[in-house]
């Protein structure tokens, strides 16, 4: 899929629904965005809920997480009980 991504995007843009599978199991769908989506995206940017400089996304900077007295796996197990 990676090698032909642009062709899959073009097919989705034309209205085709592309089902992405992993080991023969559907895991995602690639669909075209509706033409009237641009005003909604502009509203998100205007409200500050999203930002866009007009370019391609850059690399994310790693963020430091707060220290917890227990490990994440212990917290998950605790939450499940």
Features:
two-stranded antiparallel ribbon; 14% strand; 81 residues
Report what the structure shows:
Helices cover 36% and strands 14% of the residues. It is α+β, with helices and mostly antiparallel strands and 81 residues long. It has a domain at 1-33. It has a two-stranded antiparallel ribbon. A hairpin with a 2-residue loop joins strand 1 and strand 2 (25-30). The mean pLDDT is 84.
Determine the strand fraction and express it as a percent band.
5-15%
Please report the total strand number as a whole number.
Answer: 2
Task: Tell me the series of helices and strands, N- to C-terminal.
Answer: HEEHH
What about the largest sheet?
2 strands, antiparallel
Q: Span between N and C termini? A: 40 Å
**Which outline best applies?**
extended
Tell me the quaternary state. Answer: single chain
Instruction: Enumerate the strands of the largest sheet in spatial order, edge to edge or round the barrel.
Output: 1-2
> What is the residue-averaged pLDDT?
84
- The tally of helices reads 3
The helical percent reads 25-40%
- Helix/strand-derived class? alpha+beta
Spans of at least 5 consecutive residues whose pLDDT stays below 50 are none
Whole-number radius of gyration? 19 Å
How would you briefly describe this protein structure?
The protein has 81 residues and is an alpha+beta fold.
Topology:
Layout: H1 5-13, E1 18-22, E2 25-30, H2 37-47, H3 72-80
Antiparallel strand pairs: 1-2
């Amino acid at each position: 899929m990676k090698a032909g991504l642009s062709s899959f995007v073009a097919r989705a843009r034309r209205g085709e629904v592309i089902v992405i599978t992993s080991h023969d199991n559907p895991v995602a769908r690639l669909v075209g965005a509706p033409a009237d989506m641009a005003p909604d995206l502009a509203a998100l940017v205007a409200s500050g809920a999203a930002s866009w400089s007009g370019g391609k996304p850059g690399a994310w900077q790693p963020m430091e997480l707060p220290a917890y007295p227990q490990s994440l796996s212990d917290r998950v197990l605790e939450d499940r009980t």
